[in-house]
Design brief:
- This protein is an alpha+beta fold and 89 residues long.
- 24% of the residues lie in helices and 18% in strands.
- Strands 1-2-3 form a three-stranded antiparallel β-sheet, with helices on one face.
- This is Type II toxin-antitoxin system HicB family antitoxin.
- InterPro entries: DUF7387 (IPR055811), TTHA1013/TTHA0281-like (IPR035069).
- It holds the Pfam family DUF7387.
């Protein structure tokens, strides 16, 4: 059983995670949400899963303009919308 404490001071619910090795990758799946992530190491896969589950639960944040530029994305052209880009329709 998990003894982790959540941000509100209450114990977090028990979580089942499946961790498998697939070739050169470790794959981690949160069984409650179905969210899956991967990494080159077990630790990396679990850290990536934590980030992915946080995003799934709405705990993410929009990237800053500086973070977008670091990734080669022009913030002025990064616009959220209801429709998919033409390439994905």
């Amino acid at each position: 059983m998990s003894t982790d404490i959540g941000s509100n001071g209450a114990p977090e619910p028990e979580t089942t995670i499946t961790l498998t090795e697939e070739g050169e990758w470790w794959v981690a799946t949160d069984e409650a949400t179905g969210v899956t992530s991967q990494g080159k190491t077990r630790t990396e896969a679990l850290e990536n899963l934590d980030e992915a589950v946080a995003g799934y639960n709405g705990e993410g944040r929009e990237p800053t303009d500086a973070e977008l530029r670091d990734l080669g994305v022009d913030p002025e052209k990064n616009v959220s919308g209801e429709s998919l880009p033409e390439e994905f329709q």
